[in-house]
Amino acid sequence: MKIAIIGAGFGALAVAYDLSKDKNNSIEIIDPNDSAGGLAAGFKEDGWDWTLEEHYHHVFDTDKAFKQFLSELELREQLVYKKAKSSTLYNGKIWQIDTPWTLLKFKEISFLSRLRTGAVLAFLKILPNGVILEKFKASQFLILTMGKESWKVIWEPLFVSKFGRFKDQINLSWFWARVNPRTAALGYFEGGFRNLADLIVGKLEKMGVKFNFFHKVEKINKIEDKFILSLIDGAGKKFSKEYDLVISTLSSPIFSKLIDLPELKQDKMLGLGAMTMLLRLKKKILQDGTYWLNINEKNWPFVAMVEHDNLVSNKHYNGESLVYLGRYLEASDIEYQKSTEQLLADYRPYLKKLDQDFDQNLIEAKVFKAPFAQPISFINQSQYLPKFNTSIKNLYWVSMQHVYPFDRGINHAVSSARKLAKHVRMETSAS
Ligand SMILES: Cc1cc2nc3c(=O)[nH]c(=O)nc-3n(C[C@H](O)[C@H](O)[C@H](O)COP(=O)(O)OP(=O)(O)OC[C@H]3O[C@@H](n4cnc5c(N)ncnc54)[C@H](O)[C@@H]3O)c2cc1C
Asked: Which of 225, 274, 291, 397 has a 20 to 30 Å separation from 82 between CA atoms?
């Protein structure tokens, strides 16, 4: 069977790995980028030994599907875990808040609020399945259980920055999924996740999978029992190719440009885009060892600062310090259209509060944008979840929108993709 997989993210790599075990399948992966990895894609600057992701990436120790996938690929040894420090910037001060003990020391809220917050987090940590919480609004639940003070100081800034105008519509399952799998140790793949993607591509090629990088799918048509994909290559040349079965790994707004399907038009399948600025610096901004800094200050233009070299040694990046500034917003937002120069001008006064010598310290700023990067989990979202099957026979779909109650993650992309591969194998062997 001739199979096309649209997209070369980690989901696509996992599907291809499982389906290529069947020697009757001939599999092609199509992606407009020059390499695999999708949202976890990376690049390498001159003088660096390791690649670096465009958007900050790490995995948790609880990411079982990802670890299992790496074990099967004989790459598990290169996934290295290290304890990472998480802190919060509030009222001009950096507070480490990543354990019950450090939470108890967070004096910006009353001791009772700290106790209530800790108790609710402990409950969510031990609750094995958070989907049952989807009928509650996270904001209401957190105010009721942790108290108004905790909500205002710790959680509301997170919801505002992650979800903007949707902040009061997010369900409690999303919050559970954010708290429950987190581990103190974070994993990073030696050489970067781009290196991992390249290694998997090499292994898949040996298994017979063909990669069409610099190729974008523009339209999907079905004529009788064949799919005709309209493609455009990097040089702008248009042509079409025929397949028996197609698997899309695109999120609904992108997938819906390729084919008109009712299931892609659900108004409960919304998401926000991500805009990440990467700063290449001569020295660290977060000198206290913090890897992840939540920005809980009012009106700061970015919501998280991630000091990559507080997780991974800067010896792999020619001694440079690498700092990400994360932000989520709708792709239609005027802010999302801003250039690197405009964004740097906006961010500079805030960066100078953390590093007075910021201008002398800066080597380069880069901005990476992803129009769909954060699905929104509404009340009772499980009723609106997309299925693997589309309304067209032999056109399958797996994406970030399939991994609920989790909102995204390489681990979940791999896990859902492997479930899809099993489902496709079952359906195609039965027909
Ligand atoms: C800011 C940010 C931070 C993140 N941090 C983490 C983290 O720390 N840990 C973690 O595990 N996950 C993280 N993620 C999420 C993680 O990157 C994704 O969940 C995961 O990579 C999704 O993989 P995927 O294969 O489902 O989709 P994608 O990676 O989105 O892959 C889809 C692919 O489709 C391709 N494509 C698009 N249009 C077309 C077309 N017309 N024709 C052909 N191909 C097309 C794209 O180029 C892309 O390669 C983060 C994401 C973002 C945005």
From this structure: 274
